[in-house]
Amino acid sequence: MIHRSWHVLGAGAIGSLFASALHKSGVPVTLLRRPESEQSRTQAIRIDENTHSGEVHLPVSYNNDFEPIDHVLICTKAYDVRSALGEIAHRLNENSCILVLVNGMGVMDELSTDFPNLLFALGTTTEGVYRLGDGHFCHAGRGITRLGMEGLVQPPPWFSDWSRTERSCVWEPDIDETLWQKLAINCAINPLSALSRCNNGMLLETAALASQIDAVCQEISLVSRAAGYIQTATDIHRKVASVIASTANNRSSMLVDVLAGRRSENEYISGYFLKIAANYNIPTPHNKALFEGISLLDKQTKT
Ligand code: PAF
């Protein structure tokens, strides 16, 4: 029996869901936190699902502690990953596994420059979970979590910690295409819903918004084809329509950020897409206008 342990950096909604799931399946889990004030060395996480509510109590380690970290799940905002990893870098080595489960793309470009000797795995999830209060979350929709590492077709041994949890987790041999597809869906839904201040469903119910979705998807399809993401190029209109239908009553994460006056992950969503489009000299005026609209809102935030 191998005794692995996991640390979780960024115990927001998604980080807490997986910290709790790993703990419940018998894996030792520690939450990482900034040593900001006198805080307790344990933290309760409560997750409500339908009529059930489950609570776990997890140990807390401060980022500036010294015990080495073998496996760490990072679930911060995309723009915080680089500095958060910097705070625990002294506890990592070339054998540590660092699993980055954040929105958008482009974080890896930053990390491989800053931390060339560290080993990264990437992931994306469709689990629907939101915060109700301090350490208290609602698991509103079950989804699938796809994890992968560039060039690794078969899962590494640590993946069994994930496949044994109550959550549905699969190993993805082509994680890059999977992340791109999620990015493409986010590019279509998130900025338009945030600028229009509407639930996802309105994006197809209102003719003017539906035609914008169509134009944005058209551009995404062209760029995806040029970049070799053929499945996304072929499927994006249908995929976006299906995600909009299945999340019709939800607010996108970008709309939630904008309404909370928080900086959005625009640079790692539309911003990354525009960089790739520019690499192939493909004009993407609709995506650019959405990016610029959200950038203006981001400039007014403090974070
Ligand atoms: O970012 C989000 O909110 C979600 O990824 C999605 C799929 C756009 C649904 O709202």
Name its key features.
eleven-stranded mixed β-sheet, globular, 303 residues, 11 helices, alpha/beta, N-(1-d-carboxylethyl)-l-norvaline Dehydrogenase, domain 2, binds pantoate
Describe the structure.
The protein folds into two domains: 6-173, Rossmann fold, CATH 3.40.50.720; 177-298, N-(1-d-carboxylethyl)-l-norvaline Dehydrogenase, domain 2, CATH 1.10.1040. It is 43% helix and 21% strand. It has helices at 13-24, 81-88, 107-114, 159-163, 175-196, 202-205, 207-227, 230-246, 253-259, 270-279, 285-299, and strands at residues 6-9, 29-33, 42-49, 52-62, 71-74, 97-100, 119-125, 128-133, 136-141, 144-148, 168-171. It has an eleven-stranded mixed sheet, sandwiched between helices. The protein is globular. It starts with 5 loop residues before the first strand and ends with a helix. Pantoate binds next to helix 5. Pantoate is lined by residues 185-186, 189-190, 200, 243, 247, 250, 252-253.
Ends apart, CA distance between termini:
44 Å
Q: Can you list the strand order of the major beta sheet?
A: 8-9-3-4-2-1-5-6-7-10-11
Strand runs, count: 11
Low-confidence stretches: none
What is the share of helical residues?
40-55%
**CATH topology-level fold name of the largest domain:** Rossmann fold
Q: What class, by secondary structure content?
A: alpha/beta
Count of runs of 4 or more consecutive helical residues: 11
Major pleated sheet: 11 strands, mixed
Work out the count of structural domains: 2
Query: Radius of gyration from the CA trace?
Result: 19 Å
Shape: globular
Run of helices and strands: EHEEEEHEHEEEEHEHHHHHHH
Strand proportion: 15-25%
